[in-house]
Every structure is written in C-alpha cells, then in structure tokens.
Amino acid sequence: QVQLVESGGGSVQAGGSLVLACAASGDSYSRYSMGWFRQAPGLEREGVAALDRGPRIRYAESVKGRFTISQDNATDTVYLQMNSLKPEDTATYYCAAGPPRFRLELLSAKFNFWGQGTQVTVSS
C-alpha cells in the first residue's frame, strides 16, 4: 500500500506561483513513478507532470516551461513548482504513484494510488 498526502494548494492571481507537495509513504516499488494530475469541473482528469527513478520526466504540453516536477528522495516528497499560472490551470490537483512501466506516460490508468487532492484557483 501507498499513502499520498498533498499540500500547498490555494488561490493566486494570474502570473503568480504556487508549489504543491506530495508526501509519499508505503511500498517503494509501487511508487517508482510519481505524477501530478488535475481535474477541473466538468472535465476529465488530465496528466500534468510525472517522473520516475529512470530518471525520466514528462510534462503536458500545456505546462511545459511553466511547471517543474521534482522529488526529494530524503523525505519521499514530490513537488510541483507552478509558475506563470493561468486561469485555465484552475483545478483540483492530485498526486499519484505507480509501479515501473516501459514508458512513463501521463495516463491515469498507469498509476495505482492517489492522494485526496488539493485545490488550485487562479483568478484573472
């Protein structure tokens, strides 16, 4: 089993920055890959960024150059640094963990464990 606890959400004006954190614990194999997903009301959950121990990193095109995913192995915490935020980034953000895969993909089905979510609201 894996436990994921997100923190760091909040409200910010467009152009601002936020950092999300995900504290992970539990089976190490099951959290070889870590990712951030988001879901806005009425929309499907979409992948934002992911990393694994390869190390490999993937970003959604919509956040490239603005968001940075990183991991602190000493504390088993994954971060999502979000800069130049836009109103369309408004969503509930979820941390996710999954086992090793041949490819690191931003697909919900590739991740088995999920956090409770943290709200990010960007106002114009």
Principal-axes geometry comes out as globular
Which parts are unreliable, with pLDDT below 50 for 5 consecutive residues or more?
A: none
Characterize the biggest β-sheet: 7 strands, mixed
**Rg from Cα:** 13 Å
SSE-based structural type: mainly beta
Helix and strand pattern: EEEEEEEEEEE
Mean pLDDT: 97
**Beta-strand content bin:** over 45%
Total number of strands: 11
Number of helical elements = 0
| Approximate helicity band | under 10%
- Distance between the first and last residues' Cα: 40 Å
Question: What would you say this structure looks like, in words?
Answer:
- This protein has 124 residues and is mostly beta strands.
- The chain contains no helices and eleven strands.
- The N and C termini lie far apart (40 Å).
- The model has no long low-confidence stretch (mean pLDDT 97).
Describe the secondary-structure layout.
Elements: E1 2-7, E2 10-13, E3 18-26, E4 33-39, E5 46-52, E6 57-59, E7 67-72, E8 77-82, E9 91-98, E10 113-114, E11 118-123
Parallel strand pairs: 2-11
Antiparallel strand pairs: 1-3, 3-8, 4-5, 4-9, 5-6, 7-8, 9-10, 9-11
Key terms:
single chain, 124 residues, mainly beta, 4-stranded antiparallel β-sheet, 0% helix, 52% strand
Please sum up the structure shown.
The protein is mainly beta and 124 residues long.
